[in-house]
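### Sample
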Amino acid sequence: MPLWKNRGVNQFEFVSGEGAHLYDGSGRRFLDLTSGWNVANVGWQNRRLLEAFTNQAQQLSFSPSWCWHELRNRLAISLKRYFPMDVDVIGACTGAEAIENALKIARRYSGRHTIVGFRETYHGSTLGALQAGGVPSFRGVDIPQNDLHRFLPLPEPHITEEELGEAISDCVTRKPYPAAILIEPLFSNPGVIEGQPHFFEVLQKAARSVDALIIVDEVGTGFGRTGRMFAFEHLGINPDIVALGKAMGGAVAPISAAIARKPLGDVCKGLAFDSSYAWNPPSCAVALENIQILEDESLIARAHDLGEKIKLQFEQSTGNFGESVGLFGRGLEMAIRLPAGPTGNENLRLLMAQLADENIFAERSRYTNSLLLMPPLTIAETDLDSAIAQIVRILGERKPY
């Protein structure tokens, strides 16, 4: 019986990795379609990242969080280049901490308390992040909401504009007005839901009408995953706070940030925003090199191009399994969704088992019958082509849907 109880374990135990592949203890090689849930964007065991970490750790492995360090400043300057507004950068270690800091900033700055989120979303395992997510079973403890959190329906195609408008009126533009709306530019956990055309623009307009802030959770979608540096760039909105994490450290070092437009960052004072290991020098060195790799190897454009190729392959293959199986997402943040219900769930289970038998490591959505396609951005095009072909073949064999 394992003593490690954070989440539970499956049948996989990986002992090494390289690029888009993971290896188990027997030496069996798996093609990875998860990136560790969007962590290893620049590939597993990236040599440049490991060298950046090691070189800095040998010089200084830790710096107190209240002390100046040049790498912290350089990383903040590097990140600021990607945002359309003048910003402050609040460093942390994990995506959940970045979300917590974003929520604290919104509440302190606005003087309000209510946060509007979305059903079936997950923003991290700390208490505030869990409460802002729309899955009651994930919250871990039963705390009365007391109107501190309101939840919009996910903007799926079957939800009408009228229904969304009514939900926005109920959650956003009624008193007490919210401090902020917490969104994901792609709702990954429910099966990579993009949102209806102009939905986020309408939502932003409603938020602005009551002076509510827009917080964008880019923890899973940032750093090139969707074919843009940050996925909010697809949406036509101007966020007030953006939470970063996961791929920021390239599967080498834990590091995250809340990026807040000025003057919101002025409220970030005192121990409420401190974290002992936040932006430790080796982590900063890794994050800086990670950004440089994305630029040097044109991985952001590559994610877009590979995503378009997946769409084309899928469209050309729909005759094998019918239109009841859909493809959703952008870049290399994709999901193949099977029909709802027990049959779809069983077909998805069998699909994942067969992929594992064929040395492909994949994950599924927690709430829908969706296979997630989130490989490292460095994946060889031939490997990706082969994986998609295998998935299409297996789906065709599993008819009817």
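The first strand starts at residue 14 and ends at 18. This sample (4-aminobutyrate aminotransferase-like enzyme) is used throughout the tutorial notebook.
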